[in-house]
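User:
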Amino acid sequence: MTALPEWMYPPRVEGWYAKDLDHLPDAPKHTELIDGALIFALSPRPAWHARVVTALNRALAAHAPKGVEIEWNMTVRLDRRNRAEPDLLATTAPFLPQRTWFEPDDVALTIEVVSPESAERDRKVKFRKYAEAGIPHYWVVEREHDRPVVHVYELDGPTGTYAPAGIFRGTLDRPVPFPVTLGLDSLVPAPRRAGV
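Assistant: Predicted structure:
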């Protein structure tokens, strides 16, 4: 058995802090921090996942109003021991070239495209953590017969939890966090039929 690299050992008994992620130059891309533990994303991710993330990024950027940017490969510092990396996010934060993370107050929407290795985190863990951090909108994109289905949630202020706001197939039409209408089936190529 090979010894773990030195950087993989947490610097304190309670684990890692959000600020520590910026000081792990040897950590794999897309390393997240959940409850003080480092989470390494499966790489490479399935082609379906990559295609949906790329197409959603372009489509949302085309709809985003002035002052809202769509980002990916960026983390959100949810609290001292949690720094999650959604597949996409919409932010109102000003552009800073050296930025590596956003505050929850700067994030209007987080989006997770579910893949087999992230399903539990996307559907349950991040669902709870994004709500606790006060992020107002959360979309979970599921794969159904090779088509994207978007489960939309809005933060309920009195309870501090997400409430379902709809499940969208074919077309997603939402007034918040900014007006957007998306043809979901156009995000990925149509599945090939046998013999074609």
